[in-house]
Specification:
Blueprint lengths: L2 E7 L3 E2 L2 E2 L6 E7 L3 E12 L8 E9 L22 E7 L4 E9 L4 E11 L15 E12 L11 E5 L6 E7 L3 E13 L6 E6 L10 E6 L4 E6 L5 E9 L7 E11 L2 E3 L3 H11 L14 H7 L2 H5 L3 E4 L1 E7 L2 E6 L4 E4 L5 E7 L8 E9 L8 E9 L20 E6 L4 E7 L4 E11 L11 E10 L9 E8 L2 E8 L17 H13 L4 H10 L3 H20 L12 H24 L3 H21 L5 H25 L7 H25 L5 H19 L12 H5 L18
Parallel strand pairs: 3-9, 19-20, 20-24
Antiparallel strand pairs: 1-10, 2-10, 4-9, 5-8, 5-10, 6-7, 6-9, 11-18, 12-17, 13-16, 13-18, 14-15, 14-17, 21-22, 22-30, 23-30, 24-29, 25-28, 25-30, 26-27, 26-29, 31-32
Helix pairs in contact: 4-6, 4-11, 5-6, 5-11, 6-7, 7-8, 7-9, 10-11
């Protein structure tokens, strides 16, 4: 046999601590046909900084769609059936890099996905630039070994084959045509080169993670081995592997035979009939209306039990309507209500084979029309499965195919509605099988009919993540998938887990604290106006206004009010905060007015530019603060040298104003930089507002000595006034 090895690699990604699916780094690979061995090379590494500690990287695998993971142990939405993902852990301790191999024998061809992440996020809000977080990197490479000339079994033709040794298993494949109801596999005439009883193991199917449904039979002796499989994947190659369990030097010869039992489909309508009906009705090609009911002759034929027995299923044509990215609606040509019978199942095909459909959620809803069901004790059983339909619901009542565990549903007069949500459905054709079942026997159901309304659609996020979540479209190279980012303490795949959710009262309290705490700027504004610092008072008013309404718009829950675009409010809030610090320190420096106002304008322009470049960078705040402090210290030194004593010279100014203001400012910076978390943000940030506003009120210098307090009666009364010199003095003010 000719084996061909191939290598696929993707660039490394920086890992993140997990809080929602967007923190998981996804890798997308495509496994070619006839692959007999798949090997993953997983490389995890960390930086050499002292902040780097031992860390555990969790890696999830899945075939056909991104892995559905739940590292936080939260709840999934109701009616969502989830299979646990296959995962491994890679530990980074003393070693800077860890390399791990994962082997998969006889993997399924098609899309394979890997998702990697770090443990749960601590929830602390880190100011960008205050600390250097450790960098953890992850890279996944894929090696495949495929058989270039894999033998093909022809149905009904016995094919002799030989297993050379136990170390070299035999690989063959057979194509499963459409509408196959059953396959029969037989292994016969098995002998060894030593003329002894052979012992072989036959594995049918490929490995699909997280669940694998390979069928394994062990053949011992000279007897024939056989296996029958129902509901095989249609229009796909089925791999068969034969391993010798004998001695190392003995070869095994045998014959393999496969045969298929086909299924004759019946259809209530066709796309051609639909087009003709639409044309006769005068509907244009872009019409969104549904087709009419089946013709009377077709409906009569469906109600004829003998006619139904000649078909193993009844097809219902379905139109796939693409709405947006990862958004599809399925429209039934004969209307949303389909007839369901007991003799043969009703089958709907949901096409999810574009390669871009596996990043959303497939939702199927069934609604039974109670008046259409004549048998009160009858139940409509349904099964949603991938790759192949279930055609024997009336006998086995099991929602499983040969290599896939389906999603069961049922509706009856007592429970007329059922729903199933498939999170990240695998790329394939999906089938919905429906059949009518009677508890007292199928005989009484032969003439019965049930009308079931079917609503099926693919959506990026189920229920759009609810009122406490935001649906985000994520991208890895050209592949798109969606995830929910929850807020207000809600969690879960679709933000439906309210275990740690904030109550409405807590949300209102958080909004009031974050907004009303900005009113602490009113004393600072009053002090600035009283001391004739009108420009500074205008800046504080601007900051108070936009900080109040930014935090009113930034709330995660229901207590939200946005007077303008969120991004505009955020930018104005950040700009006002930094400019307030800038003008306060420059005001304390007591430089000449003309120089002070030039620095006000020039600094504001530079701060506006830097915030546009990086809004959350720590140097956007620290840079202007340090530069203003340098100017203030230089001015104070100049005043002290000129006056030949410390500046400011009054001990009362230091004890009652400067030291309290500086203390409040340092406490505010400590709270802002080191104490804020996602859980305590609403009161720690409120404390930050109070402390900063209070420090401004303490740090503002007294008015100029020649300035008199505001005398409103004198300002409003017309009288002669004595002119006075308005020259600014640069000596100490006490």
């Amino acid at each position: 046999s000719l084996y061909v090895s191939e290598y696929f690699s993707q660039s490394a990604q920086k890992l993140s601590f997990y809080s929602w699916y967007g923190n998981a780094k996804v890798f997308h690979f495509h496994v070619p046909e006839d692959t007999v061995l798949l090997r993953w090379l997983l490389q995890a590494s960390r930086g050499k900084e002292p902040e780097c500690t031992s860390m555990e990287v969790t890696v999830h695998f899945r075939c056909g769609a991104p892995p559905v993971i739940n590292p936080l142990g939260t709840q999934f939405p109701a009616n969502a059936t989830v299979h646990p993902s296959y995962n491994i852990s890679i530990t980074l301790s003393s070693a800077v890099q860890n390399t791990t191999f994962v082997n998969v024998t006889s993997p399924a061809a098609g899309d394979w996905f890997i998702a990697a992440h770090l443990p749960e996020a601590a929830g602390r809000i880190e100011v960008k630039g205050f600390s250097t977080p450790c960098t953890y990197m992850f890279q996944a490479d894929m090696f495949v070994l495929r058989l270039a000339d894999m033998p093909v079994l022809e149905p009904g033709v016995a094919m002799p084959q030989t297993v050379i040794s136990p170390a070299k298993p035999l690989h063959v494949k057979v194509f499963v045509p459409k509408y196959t109801a059953r396959m029969w596999f037989e292994l016969r005439s098995c002998v060894t080169s030593e003329q002894k009883a052979c012992s072989v193991r036959v594995v049918l199917g490929s490995i699909t993670l997280p669940q694998s449904f390979q069928k394994i039979i062990t053949c011992t002796g000279n007897v024939n081995c056989s296996l029958g499989l129902d509901s095989l994947p249609w229009e796909k190659w089925l791999q068969i592997m034969v391993e010798s369990l004998g001695t190392a030097n003995a070869s095994v010869s045998m014959e393999m035979l496969t045969s298929f039992t086909d299924c004759r489909p019946g259809s209530t309508s066709s796309f051609l009939n639909f087009s003709l009906n639409q044309s006769q009705a005068g509907s244009g090609p872009g019409s969104t209306g549904t087709a009419g009911s089946p013709t009377q002759s077709t409906g009569t034929a469906l109600r004829n039990a003998s006619e139904q027995r000649s078909f193993c299923l009844q097809n219902q044509p379905v139109v796939r309507e693409d709405l947006d990215v990862v958004s599809v609606r399925y429209r039934l040509l004969n209307g949303p209500a389909v007839p369901v019978y007991s003799i043969s199942p009703t089958l709907l095909l949901l096409n999810l084979k574009t390669g871009m459909d596996s990043g959303g959620s497939l939702v199927v809803n069934l609604q039974l029309n109670k008046t259409s069901l004549s048998q009160a004790n009858a139940t409509v059983v349904a099964c949603l499965s991938a790759a192949s339909p279930v055609l024997s619901l009336n006998t086995t009542q099991k929602c499983s195919t040969a290599f896939f565990q389906g999603y069961p549903l049922s509706v009856s007069t007592s429970s007329a509605e059922a729903m199933v949500i498939v999170l990240y459905p695998q790329t394939d054709d999906w089938f919905l099988s429906l059949q009518l079942i009677c508890t007292k026997g199928q005989g009484e159901c032969n003439t019965a009919e049930a009308k079931v309304t079917i609503i099926a659609y693919l959506t990026p996020c189920f229920n759009d993540c609810g009122p406490y979540g935001q649906c985000s479209l994520l991208r890895r190279h050209g592949y798109l998938y969606a995830g929910c980012s929850c807020k207000a303490g809600w969690s879960g795949w679709s933000c439906t887990d309210d275990t740690k959710a904030q109550s409405v009262g807590a949300q209102n309290l958080a909004t009031l604290l974050l907004t009303l705490s900005n009113l602490m700027f009113l004393p600072a504004i009053a002090v600035a106006v009283y001391r004739y610092y009108l420009v500074e008072a205008s800046v504080y008013t601007y900051t108070m206004f936009f900080s109040t309404f930014y935090h009113a718009c930034d709330q995660p829950g229901v207590a939200v009010m946005c007077i303008m675009d969120y991004d505009t409010l955020q930018y104005c809030d950040f700009l006002g905060s930094v400019v307030s610090i800038w003008v306060t320190i420059l005001c304390m420096s007591r430089v000449k007015k003309i120089l002070k106002y030039v620095l006000f304008v020039l600094g504001t322009l530079l701060i506006a530019m830097s915030l546009q470049l990086d809004r959350r960078g720590v140097w956007n705040m620290m840079g202007p603060c340090l530069f203003a402090l340098v100017i203030m210290i230089a001015a104070w030194v100049y005043h002290g040298v000129k006056r030949r004593h410390c500046y400011p010279s009054s001990w009362k100014r230091w004890v009652f104003y400067l030291l309290p203001g500086i203390t409040l400012a340092f406490i505010a910076i400590s709270v802002y930089a080191f104490m804020e978390t996602n859980e305590n943000y609403y009161y720690t940030h409120s404390i930050w507002h109070v402390l900063v506003a209070g420090s401004v009120a303490f740090l503002l210098p007294p008015r100029d000595k020649h300035k008199k307090p505001w005398a409103w009666s004198q300002k409003l009364t017309c009288r002669y006034q004595i002119c006075q010199n308005d020259r600014e003095e640069l000596y100490a003010v006490t």
